[in-house]
Structures are given as C-alpha cells and as structure tokens.
Amino acid sequence: MGLAASQARLLLLTARKSDLEYRAQQITNAEMILAMQTEQIAREYSIKISNQAIFFTNATDQSSFCLSGKSFANKEISGYDLYTLVTDSSDVSDSESVWINGNKKISNEDYELLSEAEKNQYDKYHIVNYDNQSELPNGLMLLEGLKNGTLAIVAKNNEVVNLNSNNGFTQSYYTDDDRAAEAEYERKTAEIQVKEKRLQNDLNQVETQQKACDTEIDSVKKVMEKNIERTFKVFS
To answer: CB under 8 Å to 65, separation ≥6 — which residues?
Structure first.
C-alpha cells in the first residue's frame, strides 16, 4: 500500500472511529434515560401501593369498608350526607346548598343572619348529585377531597366529620389497586430491561468495532512509517 493510499485509509478509519465513539455516547445517554425512567416507575409504584382512602366502621358489628361517593348514593351508611364545594353559585339554588365552616354546618337562612365578617368564614357546599353515579368520587378521590376541603361529610346533627376525631371514619391503606399497580410495574420494568439488554448488545458491538478499528489504525500507521522510512533511504 502506497503512502497516499495509506493516508486515505487512515483518514477513513479515523472518521469511522469518530462515528463509533459518537454512537457509544448515544447508547450511554440512552441507558441513562432508561435508568431515570426506571427510577420514575419505581416511584410511581411506591405511591400507588402506599395510597390511602377513608374507611367507615359500623359500630354495631365492627365491620369496616372503604367509602366512596357511591357509598352515600347507595345509602350504605345512614345518618351522613356528602357535600361538595360550590365553585359556581349559578349551578346550585339556595334550597340545595348549605354553608360550612370547619366542623360546623348552617343553612342558608342562618347564613343570612351572620355579619359580613362571619360570612367570610364559610364556604358554600351542596349535596352530591346522586343521579349521575359515574361522576361520584371513588375512595381515593373522596379522601383527597376531604383533606383539601372540596368535600365534606355531614351528620344529621349538622356536625361535619373530622377524620382526626370521629371514631367511625378512619384513614387507612387502599389495597384494591395494588395488584394492578404491581402488574403495571412489572410490565414497564420488563420493557425497560429488554431495551437495556438491546442497548448493551449494541454497545458491545460498538466496542468490538472500536477495537478492530484501533488495530487497523495501528497497522496502517506502521505501514506509513515503513513507507516513509524507505523513501528517506532512497533519497539519502
């Protein structure tokens, strides 16, 4: 191989080596993305299996079950109503609404007797519509609504249920969705493992090609050195 041909070959090999290095960097970046996705999936799984809901314990037989909006719609517990915060006063007439401040509920008539300062301490609620059960909150939504104040459970004596003090209502882990969460976690993890294995195989191939490329570059350089050495001997 002549000097010019060797130089051309060396340039091609150098370009090839640069391409392989760039491909290896891409694979490494892809593996880092998969690692972050794995962490996110694990975090989501942890949240789903540790979520909580509100449970009601029957004082008569001490049976306990997870509450939802349908529990009130189907009259599974007696003596309590579920109210939701009114966001648009035009949606609800005064006859359908009540006013709640902390653990106290008053009617519209009593509300009108309050001073303006006292009125500002109350939020307007209306009883949850039992006609459209598809829109009723599930157990997780019910607990979240009670915590953030968008929902309220009110007893017949107008006492608003406080989860921290009412023995009939307790907050506990919600396990009904654990199997689905575990199946989803295993599916997503398996998909990532397949991708990781494919990337690792690609990286191994790239590294093998890099070694072969380095070997050939060394070989071409030796040929060029010998050609240069012979050329100088001729003209010396």
So the answer is: 55, 56, 71, 76
In the prediction, which pLDDT does 134 show? 62
Q: How far, rounded to the nearest angstrom, does the alpha carbon of residue 210 sit from its chain's CA centroid?
A: 40
What does the alpha-carbon distance between residue 12 and residue 19 come to, in Å, rounded to a whole number? 11
Q: Which amino acid is at 19?
A: D
Q: How far apart are CA 177 and CA 69, in angstroms?
A: 17
Residues in the chain: 236
Written as one letter, the residue type at 233 is: K
Q: Whole-model pTM above 0.85?
A: no
Average pLDDT over residues 165-171: 77
* Per-residue tokens: 111: 């509300």
Whole-number pLDDT of residue 105: 87
Q: Is the dihedral of CA 180, 183, 186, 187 positive or negative?
A: negative
- Ordered by start, the domain boundaries in the chain are 3-47+182-235, 52-174
